[in-house]
Design goal:
four-stranded mixed beta sheet, 128 residues, single chain, Aminopeptidase, globular, alpha+beta
Amino acid sequence: MTAVMEILQSTSQYRADEKDYDQIWGEFQSQTNHFGLVALDEKSDVVGYGSIFIERKIRGGKMGHIEDIAVHPGFRKKGIGKLLINALYQISQEEKCYKVSLVCKEHNLFFYQKCDFVIDGISLSKFL
């Protein structure tokens, strides 16, 4: 769990206090609409992580939200990110989602386009 939390530091400036990791992980894992995948190397070290949340929409149907795709810098450009994306997409199909979305930084846009995602609107955030 600590290894996953550390690898995710590359995705955001937000940093949880390490003393809270166990509580955060427990609360996170208790969600029933979430699937997380961990990529391991041959020594079982964490080299990647990705997750998908399944949202039930008010009009019916379900939508998947892919989040927190992160690959250890020493393992980038080896197909791990694409494997994570494809596996999360497969989960969305098994959950019978009608659509899967993700939000990314502009410098990651080409990677997600290579994974067959298309630009569909604009995402805005307001940080607290």
